[in-house]
Specification:
With 103 residues, the protein is α+β, with helices and mostly antiparallel strands. The protein contains one helix and five strands; from the N terminus they run E-E-E-E-H-E. It has a domain of 72 residues. A hairpin with a 5-residue loop joins strand 3 and strand 4.
């Protein structure tokens, strides 16, 4: 099981592999295939929650907190690939769009 940590900190998953930084997520059930990585583009909503859209597959999820989003992304990927090899990694890429008027 992944150790709890702040967004951006390195963590270890249940198999002992490091997850990396800034949302790189590995779950024990996601180490089945030969190296495929899928990427989610994550945006923060005005209410503070997060919405994630996979860039290569039709997978969408959301969460009220970063930890909830991570959990929901793992669950969504597992459900999507239920009858196929699981990706080796799921990357959550937080996108921040900010308009600076008059800059």
């Amino acid at each position: 099981m992944a150790q709890a940590g702040e967004k951006g900190n390195q963590e270890l998953c249940g198999c002992g592999r490091q997850t990396g930084v800034n949302g790189l997520v590995f779950g024990p059930a996601l180490h089945d295939s030969g190296g495929m990585e899928i990427v989610f583009s994550v945006t923060q909503e005005t209410d503070g929650g997060y919405v994630a859209e996979c860039l290569s597959h039709d997978i969408f999820t959301e969460g009220n907190t970063w930890e909830e989003l991570r959990s929901n992304a793992r669950e969504a990927v597992s459900a999507y690939f239920f009858d196929q090899p699981k990706p080796a990694a799921v990357r959550l890429h937080l996108v921040r769009d900010e308009l600076l008027a008059g800059a």
